[in-house]
């Protein structure tokens, strides 16, 4: 079994993809717009048709993980309640780079700093309202 995050950006998906390319090196593996749906099959639950230029489905590769993304039905501001994505950095320099880039236009809730469990750990909310933790764990004892 495999669990994959599916993020709905409520009309800001393309902007988010560009941001995550810069911030975490995301690669776009697949992108389909509502206008690409065969026979105009893309329809909102209320029967309306989403804008053809909006993202119906995208797949991003971030490190070893694939993350799905969409504009959803483009109804307003995205809300990411009760979820946080966590990035494990290879070293403290990478942790700082990831944290600083993700925080651009967002808000750091816990600045990146050493803790008892990690040489670098911080928490932030990015410009889209998505919560992130960035960590460089301490080595496990032998």
Structure description:
The protein is an alpha/beta fold. The protein has two domains: 6-70, Signal recognition particle alu RNA binding heterodimer, srp9/1; 84-137, 2-Layer Sandwich (Signal recognition particle alu RNA binding heterodimer, srp9/1). 17% of the residues lie in helices and 36% in strands. The chain is built from two helices and eight strands, in the order E-H-E-E-E-E-H-E-E-E. It has helices spanning 13-24, 92-103, and strands at 6-8, 27-33, 55-62, 65-70, 84-88, 107-113, 118-125, 131-137. Strands 1-4-3-2 form a four-stranded mixed β-sheet, covered by helices on one side. A four-stranded mixed β-sheet has the order 5-8-7-6, covered by helices on one side. Helix 1 (13-24) runs antiparallel to helix 2. The two termini are 30 Å apart. The model has no long low-confidence stretch (mean pLDDT 92).
